[in-house]
Amino acid sequence: MSELLALHRHGPAIEQDGPLPLVLLHAFPLDSRMWEGVVAHLPELPVVTVDAPGFGSSPSPAAVAEALARPADPSLETCADAVAASLHSAGIGRAVVAGLSMGGYTVLALAERHRSLLAGVGLLDTKAEADADAARANRLRVAEEAEGPGGAAAVAPMVDQVLGATTHAERPAVVDRVRGWLAEAPADGIAWGQRAMAGRPTRRSALEDLGVPALVLRGAEDETASQSAAQSMADALRDVEVVVVPRAGHMTAVEDPEAVAAALSALHERAEHRH
Ligand code: MLT
């Protein structure tokens, strides 16, 4: 069966009796390329990076919703259903699934709707709480702006927020790369993503009784996903490791891919042990 979303496979082939696949879900408004550095540090694992609806090589959000017979309204539920359906089509019924920021919101929706898929979860630079009113209003404003003549210019200012002070001061190539990705972000993906995130509920309860190994990770310089938000998720989880990546902001996977790969590898090992 063909896969609904674009899945990018790395490392050894996925086998029934082989290691659990590690599935990585990207941040807004990027795509699977943001995991390149992390994947390079995990050559021994079968890794699948997934492009969300409207991003990278995945079909438009409207086409994804139609294929799943879901309402056309943007939602992370549709994104989670699309991830689960795509993995199912690829023969993956159980995996360690990690997501960064928007990818983490999708992991939370998977925990609510597709729990049997999850052998372990990674919640990176994300939060389980819904937006406050002001943040929601800002998302809807950015969505409209992206649909206007400026397109991706609506998200250009994000480069200042999503990278930490250390990266801005010492890693000019990372700043350039992220600026380039933001400039290329597709307008319909931006609009869909902002509206989907604006509509997401608080999903902390999805973590209670999850019963699989979990990782909560954040960059010490992250100004988007706070330490208290990370702690709130960790408090809801039974089997959790909390990792703080020093000298990194919200885009830990891009700012310090080696540290993120090490944390994901440890999560994978715990999940294998439990499997
Ligand atoms: C992301 O990195 O995915 C975004 O910062 C998420 C958000 O806007 O909440």
TrEMBL record:
Record domain AB hydrolase-1: where: 22-263
Pfam families: Abhydrolase_6 (PF12697)
UniProt keyword Hydrolase present: yes
Keyword annotations from UniProtKB, A to Z: Hydrolase
Zinc-finger as UniProt keyword: no
Cross-referenced InterPro entries: AB_hydrolase_1 (IPR000073), AB_hydrolase_fold (IPR029058), AB_hydrolase_sf (IPR050266)
Entry's Gene Ontology molecular function annotations: hydrolase activity
Identification of the protein by name: Alpha/beta hydrolase
Organism: Georgenia halotolerans
